[in-house]
Structure prediction request, 215 residues.
Amino acid sequence: MQQLLSHPGPGTRESAVASERAARAQLRSQVGRLERELARLTAEGFPRIQIDHHVAGSAPAPRLLALGDLERIRDDLADRVSEARRALQERAEFEAANRELLRALLESPEKHRGLKIGRAEVGEPGCGGWRSVPRYGLLGMLMGWWRVKVSSGCPLAERLAAVEQQRQEEAGGTAAAPGAGPAQAGGPAFRVPPEGCRRAAPGPLRRRAAAGALG
Prediction:
C-alpha cells in the first residue's frame, strides 16, 4: 500500500510562524512586567532591605532567544518577585512589632531597662535611636528612676573630618626625626603667640609673689 506523504504548505508554515511570533510577544510582555515589578519592590524596600534586582544575561553573546529561554527567564523573575514580596512582608511585620515595643518603652521606661531600639528597626531613616537609661546614674538605677534617652543620630561629616585630620597630624609627628621640633614635623597644631603678645600673670598673683620675696 502506498503511503501518502503530506508536506506542509505555505499556509501552514505562515500559521506556525505567526503562532511563534505571538507566543514570543506574550513572553516578552510577561518578562517586562515582572522586571518592572521587581524594580518597584527594590525601590520600596531600599534602604531597609537589599533586594537583588540584577537580571543576568542568558547567553554570552547577543542572539535571538528561543521560546524555552524566554520561559526560563520569566519563571526565574516570577520566583524572585515572590521572594521580594515575602521579604518585604516579613520586614513590615518586624517594624510593626518594634513600633509597638517603642510605644511601650516611651510609656514605661522602667519596665524596659536597658532596652535600645534603633530608627532603622522601626522603618525610619537615620542611625539614631531610643534607649532606656537610669536618671542620675547609679542612684537612679537603685531608686528605679528611668527615662528614655534619644540619641543624636549619625556623626557629622565635619567631626569625622576633624578626627581624620587629627590622626594625620599625629602620624606626621610620630614619623618625624628624633629631636625635631614641632615645626620640623609639619608645624605645630596650635600657634604660639610672639613674646610681646603673651599674657602676663594676673595682678594678685604677682603682688603675692613680690610680697613673699620681700618677707
